[in-house]
Queue: 3 jobs
Job 1
Amino acid sequence: MLSRLAKRCLESQRGLFHGQLRWKSQDVGVIGVPFSKGQSEAGVQMGPKALRDAGIISKLNEIGCNVHDYGDLIIPTISDDPPYLNVSHPQTIAGTIKLLSDAVTKCRQDKRVALTIGGDHSLSAGSIHGHAQAEPNMCLIWVSLYMHLLPMPFNPSSITMKLVSVKPERNLAFYWMVSFRVCPNQNRFHCIRTGPKCYCNALFTAKCMTVFQVDAHADINTPLTSNTGHFHGMPLSFLVHELKDYIPYIPGFEWLHSCINARSIAYIGLRDLDPGELHIVREYGISCFTMHEVDRLGINQVLERSMEVVNPYKDRPIHLSFDIDSLDPRIAGATGTPVPGGLSIREGIYIAEELAKTGMLTAVDVVEVNPHLGSDHDKHLTLYSAVNIIQACFGKRREGNVPRDYSLPKPDKVLHKQH
């Protein structure tokens, strides 16, 4: 109820709260991360080059995007980087994702949608963290007094709520004062401007950023639940507030603080979870739609229900993390951890199209494209799938696109008269 009230109270402030946070989705910043240390298969570091060679920059330009290519990150080289508490290459990984976090933050501050191309999925720890630094991270609504503790009738006859937007480090950014009228005979109040009723147990919290992870795997193991020590299966656990007590000290990761709530994550397409990951998903109520639900409900219902859980008003910034192994290996075989029974290319494109239509898709990761694996046919189909999904994220429609400045040509009047 409070979330509905908060939305209505802010409708008159859309120019400040929503309008300034939205920018043209056609302004795209591309960041390449040629990184492979989060897993064991060689070749995934060539993913950014393969996607560029496949024409991803020109194809985005063709559909009307204004693309700024930030180039590839320069991956730090650390010769002495032994495993630490079941995390392989900890110093290299920490340094790389810190570079990416800073790059994504800058891209967002430049008012561009951040497109990160990898590289293995460990990079999402940096891209999501950087995205969270650039977006207002938390909204709080509270009442100056807890009304259910006060006798009724109550004087004064109106109270004030503050809407506060806070940066991730909790520095105050801005706030509005919203006045409400107390119902003297009931423990509830009316918003003077919009009129909906709301029980007034004072605190409302909403993380502004939501994460959609389209993947065969949950990638939310902690270092203590991982069977492999590969960081590409752990990045989300380092970012989730509810798991911070379960993350041990890892040298190099001191800067990486949790930045999202578990309930701000939606999984689509899962079909291979480790026991620890499954426990985390269930214990913390993470929205999770496996391939079983995709088969039973259809991808449209899965996406709608995911959105209802984490972003019901479609007014929160969306981070899409798309692992190419979420697709079936028949159409995306050039990847390190293929799992049969995945999404079709049509389902993958549909997810991208629908998220793009919200106008709130502000960061995209496409990861685990490995051009060194599979046959030439596998490589071609994998790149074709990745390029088409990226284009769909930025406005390409399957029925075709009309250029922004297009107008119907008219026949030349002079030539027309001569004939």
Note: Residues 90-109 form the longest helix (20 residues).
Job 2
Amino acid sequence: MGDKSSLKLPGVGKDKKREVESLPMPLNKEPYTEIQPKILRMLLGKGVYPVYLDFSTREFQLEDVLFLRNCPNIVKELNLSNNSIVECNLSPLSKMKRLVIDNNLLVSILFTGLSSLSLLSAANNRLEQLDDMSELKKLIYLDLSYNRIVTGWDELAKLKNTIKVIDLAHNGIDLPLQNFHHDVVEGSLKKLARLEYLGIGGNPICTRVQEFKYYVIHELPRLRYYNWELITKEDRVRAARLEADGLWSERSLPLVNMGTMTRTQSSALLVTQPPTAAGGVATSGASPSLLLHSSSSSSSSSSMSNNNLSRSNSTSTNP
């Protein structure tokens, strides 16, 4: 398993120096659970693009993003990590280029209006499905690790002209190989002409399907990194040999109707299916999520460490 943080991933860019404005702790010394219009106006400064907002620090424990509905369209980067947000709709912010909303309680995130977004990190949440991504016309980097995604895979295909990095690690993905092949690989990943980096470690399918790493390498020949490790010529040769041996012939079987099956029922079904060929097992580890402003992340309980809420009215280089 490679080190994601050590790679210069497309769409990430470099952190810029921000003009920092401290936000005082409320008089009752409890974190802000909502942002009043007066405070938002203060944070927006002169009210001109670009503005950088960071609500990931200990002063905040936001429960929703309703306060941003009336926010002027001047936000370039927004960090909402480490809060208690359940639903997210930021459609008024069509000029926003980066959104980080890791470590929340998200069950729904709408992408309507986010036509300028190049980076989206929503790691360590409770997302179970992908909503319409057709308006994400410029998205390059997508981190959905440490979620519970089981449906909506076809939405990824709508990112076919721009997306280069996708992290799906630790989502409990445990589909039968034929379903995974049909829904995830053929239905979406193969259609992403510019995809170079794929993180998918920590999902049960990675250890259940024999030589899963090489299955992915064979199916996605344009991929350069698998789980943040460079794919070598030897990897591709081995993948071709395993394919010639028919190791993954199971992918041609009729699809299994998962219906409304729970994860437990699904796992029980998969355990009863005998392997189709002998071979090794590819293992994968965790994949850290990306955080802005030189923050770090780790496992499902990771948190960002930022000391101030920052903003800037000076132009920065686009990723």
Note: The radius of gyration is 21 Å.
Job 3
Amino acid sequence: MRLWTLLLTLLCCSLFSAQEAEADSNFTLTVDNQHVFAVVDVPFNVTVTIEQVNWSDKPIEIFWESNGVYVFPKDELGHNIVFTQSGPHSQTLRLEASLFGIFNLRFYKMDRNGKKTFLNIGQEVELVIKRENVQQNKIINIIFTIIIALALAFMGLALDMKVVLATLKKPIGPAIGMFCQFILMAVFSYLLGWLLLETNYERLGLLLLGCCPGGSHSNFWTAMFHGDVNLSCTMTFISTLGAFVFTSLWVYLLGTPLVGKTIPIPYPHIAISLASFTIPLLAGVAFKYKWPKKALTLSKKISRPFFLLCLITLPIIAVVTNIHFFYLCTWRHIVSGACLGFLGYIFGAGLAALFRQGKPQIIAIALETAIQNGGIAFIVLNMTFSSPYSDMGVLPILSFFFCSTGPFMFVIYAVYLVFTKLQGTVQQKTKELELDKAENSQQSISVSTISVID
């Protein structure tokens, strides 16, 4: 008898809860805009309306959440909205985002046990939060250009135009670099994007990076690793010229289908990049021709420390201006960017070794293949998408620079310095031992000669 009583009680409670849930869920929730555009650190509104309600005595309580912790309420409503039969059927949420990006807003109910039931209001509300000060990027780009121009002028002091002309007459190294940069890197970036990244603007960002020519950072690192600077600069010049054709071709074939619209190619920027690379180099070459002794002194005492200063300060500035990367990046961004860089180093060095290039040439080709001119990719993204879509597309590019050319390269360079130091010490000791043996041998010969005379 007790068992039947207990079962009847549970059945009644279940029916009551089901009726209560049905009464609560018999309404429609709508928002005034499925795509909300706002600026970081500036409050914005989202109006929520309840319709077709089968009212009961109880108020209806709705909660909201965002997939980004950087979106938070700015009014007394907090994370919940309460609708009553006698109250207003539209209420406005006042929100704010502390970081730019693309986030979603979802609404749900919560039962007595704390279980969430998400409401179907069509699509999730998309929050598009853009940068507060876009002009800041232009100022930073100007500073970057001035610093890099000075560094390239110092690099021109070390160029030997006879070697450059000889390289152009027998362009085995540049041909290897062109194949690696515009064929292998483009294919790798496209495949990695589809394999690892989730949005088309992120895939486009990685593809653009893979289609770009070599950048001046590859020249700096080639000098630091004692590679062939003449070959490196020649390859950068040729690949920048080739970008007018190959970057445009890959973007048309692979980039346009990704976003479903024509992607503008910044030909003026590519031309400016070519000029900003060539003119400072030629200025350094002219200085060397006019004052060879001063050029040699500057090249030995200032060039490498200035290159190192550039390689340290420029990434720091990039980190500060793109601090959102550390909040929004995922393992997908990091792995895709790192893999693209590592594949560039491996295949660039491998093909150079396969074609029997020397050690300095292998260093130059590997670095020139892997380290791309990311500035062109940034420009194209900004021309194709507005903020924050362009900022999100930059995430795999930043991952590439942080994981493949930034801190990673400093670790490799530190290992290289230690290895070079140890190698120099071993060679010095070997020479000392050989000299000691030679002296002992000479002394033995002298003693033998004296003995024979006696």
Note: Confidence is low (pLDDT under 50) at residues 13-24.
